[in-house]
Amino acid sequence: MSGETLAGVLDAIAQAVEHGRAMPMSTSVLVNKTELLSLLDQARAALPDQLEAADEVLADADAVMARAREEAERVLADARRRADELVSRESVVAEARAEAERIVADAQATADRLRREADDYCDRRLAEFEIDLGRVLAQVQAGRAKLAGRLGED
């Protein structure tokens, strides 16, 4: 079933039900049992692929977070180094302290911004994934409801 998405398989199941031969005087339809069971097997097989895609999204988000942390740590280390250099000069100690505090504050603000941006990115990606999973769940529930309705009418 390579490359088939769960949503695609569920669409095929829905299409099989919609195009099934109608039973007179009822809402029931006749569908090819072998075809429908095959599609259900494909849906089961596609689920791990969808979960793997979700894991990839989370891994991407983790990588973005790691890069943001590394950048924040580098900025803070540079700021501290620069602050230490400025403070070590005797003639400009007061000025160096003020500049060092400003640099550290700027670095902290940059680090905070990078963390917020990374969190926002992760949240957006997870929200997209949540929407996709919601659609898949709705399709699965609709397919099961149709099957349950047919089973109840038989």
Topology diagram in text:
Blueprint: H1 6-18, E1 21-22, E2 29-30, H2 33-88, H3 93-153
Antiparallel strand pairs: 1-2
Question: Can you summarize this structure?
Answer:
The protein has 154 residues and is mostly helical. The protein has one domain.
Helix content: over 70%
Secondary-structure element pattern, one letter each: HEEHH
Major sheet, described briefly?
Answer: 2 strands, antiparallel
Can you give the mean pLDDT?
85
- Low-confidence runs (pLDDT<50, min 5 residues)? none
By secondary-structure content and strand pairing, the structural class works out as mainly alpha
Please indicate the count of domains: 1
Number of strands: 2
How many DSSP H or I helices? 3
Indicate the overall shape.
Answer: rod-shaped
Radius of gyration: 29 Å
Beta-strand portion reads: under 5%
| Order of the strands making up the biggest sheet | 1-2
Distance between the termini: 31 Å
Keywords:
3 helices, 2 strands, single chain, 154 residues
Descriptive report:
This protein is mainly α and about 150 residues long. It has one domain (about 5-154). About 85% of the residues lie in helices and about 5% in strands. The chain has three helices and two strands, in the order αββαα. It has helices spanning about 5-20, 35-90, 95-154; strands at about 20, 30. It has a two-stranded antiparallel ribbon with strand order 1-2. The radius of gyration is 29 Å and the shape is rod-shaped. The mean pLDDT is about 85.
